[in-house]
Design goal:
Helix content is 70%, strand content 6%. It has 169 residues and is mostly helical. It folds into three domains: 30 residues; 62 residues, Orthogonal Bundle (Arc Repressor Mutant, subunit A); 53 residues. Strands 1-2 form a two-stranded antiparallel ribbon. Strand 1 and strand 2 form a beta hairpin. Helix 3 crosses helix 4. The chain is globular.
Length: 169
Amino acid sequence: MPRLSNEMERVLADLGEVIQGYQSAVDDYDRETARLLGVNETDLRCLELLLGAGELSPRELSTRLGLTTGSVTAMLDRLENLGLLNRTPHPVDRRKTVVRVTPEGARRCYELIAPHREDSTKEISAKYSVEQLRLVIDFLRANTAIQTRHIERLRAMVAPKQHRGRRGK
């Protein structure tokens, strides 16, 4: 790997700290949103995926969330019992199921996230030009591709068995 200049090393170190701070803020925001919806963070991620896509199959959710099909079924049962989503037969292939956020679920989610979106739109558009925002979009897409590649790498690894202390001795 080529040697980086001192300035580049400093900027990358600062960037790493800023990204970690941003990621912590996103994690905290998601945790609070999940708390107010009465769900866990994986459930919230499922709702985010469904709101973005409109509808997904349980298998697609399993793949995107990195969960077993059994875990997805339990999650969907929880979210359906809370009135946040519903499962219906696929319109063409009746053997398949389609999962969608209910209108009430969407209302509850957007009620929590709309103020954040509005503030972000207002403040970011006032601070940055279109060209600057395009650069940020490019940066985030590049980082997302790197992150996704490493998520796949980690998912392929076998986790160590949990060590349990011995009793009685």
